[in-house]
Design brief:
homotrimer, about 50% helix, Enoyl-CoA delta isomerase 1, mitochondrial (chains A, B, C)
């Protein structure tokens, strides 16, 4: 079967520490449920997809809090990127502050064709250096050159631009986002799961393996972001 | 001079163990022939290019046979991918079961513009996990993202789609496939061969180096394919 | 502030050993100047951008001279590719002999739309094997597949072709090259420099790290180029 995971963290679904922990627990339950082969990831409130990093968690806190927060971000990424389920993102809202961390861990991305919606990543604009593993995810999805500009300039894309650069796979009218996500899911689930899962794991293994030292990555984040986020805001 | 290597293994040119061994011997002879600088690879029977993996060799056999078969597949790939000759694929037929292993080892691919022809790879559909070195060849030719979808979903492409995704370099009317292949060959042979060969070897070295442990790859193939191929068929 | 670095080495701005050394010194001064955040790289003489490798330095000289020359080429590339400044290439002329080493180390490339101008690299045509680090720069900018053909065949591109393949980012009328370069620069300089520099360094680090053994690369160059350049000319 297919599960639907809906983000809900008013007002803008931002990835607070609490939200990250809740997501990791939900994903673990779904991962262990053998009856579930695919997960559609979407927002409960059309119009606001968000799930951006929560600047409040990264601003004016002590280093231990920064470290705890970043560890939770890593954990979510690792769970999603190594999932044995087929993941399809049904992007039914905007990323006002940009980060597309979660959609990029999915096998397929469907986005609503609404000129008010954007997707991308504004990390550098708020003084954050995207971690290397997110950079690798982006290089895998884009071309290296597009990833260079997007990451350094903190670019946001409208739906049609996102399609062209390859950040999403399909753009459809907003009322068709869910049904398209489900039919894409059906296509992926038609593949013998043993072969599909091993193939996916082979494709992404190198990217995951690079995060073997999570501590170094946490320290780099705390070191580079502590002052610069506050300065940029 | 330019040699033309024509596949011939009725009815569909599939890569049986015998065919693999014959190809390796033919390639070794050509490789050692200093008078030959380029090889056009094509099918003797227009309409059927094929050279797909032979499911009969991978179904209901004992593990030792699986291992022997896979070693021969590796050997063919290594010979082709490390060839010092300029290789041009003149694709004058369909790949009914898909695998494009051989064309992707060539320096250039010309395909006949026939809507009955397709090229791609259906490995996952029959329960096979493509080996990492074939994945790497695909990532080098496509974008990483296109390779993800193609490999996981076992996709086949019509000639125009194949051109767009980059699996072939040129699509021409079927009666021009051979002449186009030869004029492409002339273009490549105009380059000082010393510089061209060293440049090619530099581009592909990393991909080849990853296969240093052929045994691990053979065992992975036997382990992952033994049951799943039969189940999928 | 923004500095403008103008090439000037009549008649065709080629990268002689003297010119390389002068460039490295100029770059070091700019790099140490904290008031400078960006550098526009251009030619003093519109019509001739050039800055190609100087074949006179690589032809009929003794091995020690080859080695000294190549070390200087490495040094220039390392300085540019690791620069903490934003680099924008304002390509206001042709590369008659092709190499696009310097523009490819920049963060952004603007080229004049003149059908007499070309950009690319003709290394193999004159018997030179491009070094692996230049290959990596090219793969980062292009797709792997485009880099294969471009490097092996020694291809040159007209401005519109260069844009399509991704070797330049923007093509504009020749009288707008400088102003476009400056407005691109303003866009990059709007990013908090701490975050932008660390992001850039993360993107390119792997490519730079590969050149840890400069001696092996020098010896490979001397060995492969000594006879073949003279033969090709």
């Amino acid at each position: 079967g297919v599960a639907v995971l809906k983000f809900k963290n008013p007002p803008v679904n931002s990835l607070s520490l609490g939200m990250l922990m809740e997501l990791v627990i939900s994903l673990e339950k779904l991962e262990n449920n053998k009856a579930i082969r695919g997960i559609v990831i979407t927002s409960e409130r059309p119009g606001i997809f968000a799930t951006s990093l929560d600047l409040m968690e990264m601003c004016g806190q002590n280093p231990a809090h920064y470290a705890e927060y970043w560890k939770a971000v890593q954990e979510l990424w690792l769970r999603l990127y190594q999932s044995n389920k087929v993941l399809v993102a049904a992007i039914n809202g905007a990323y006002p502050t940009g980060e597309c961390l979660i959609p990029l861990t999915c096998d397929y991305r469907v986005m609503a064709d609404n000129p008010k919606y954007t997707i991308g990543l504004k990390e550098t604009l708020v003084g954050i250096v995207a971690p290397f593993w997110f950079k690798d995810t982006l290089v895998n999805t884009f071309r290296h050159r597009s990833a260079e500009c997007t990451l350094q300039l903190g670019m946001l894309f409208l739906p049609t631009e996102a399609l062209q650069v390859g950040i999403v796979d399909q753009v459809v009218p907003k009322e068709q986002v869910q049904s398209t996500a489900l039919s894409v899911m059906a296509q992926w689930m038609a593949i013998p799961d043993h072969a599909q899962q091993l193939t996916k794991s082979m494709m992404w293994k190198l990217t995951v393996d690079h995060l073997v030292s999570r501590d170094a990555d946490i320290q780099f984040f705390v070191f580079t972001s502590r002052d610069s986020i506050q300065k940029a805001m």
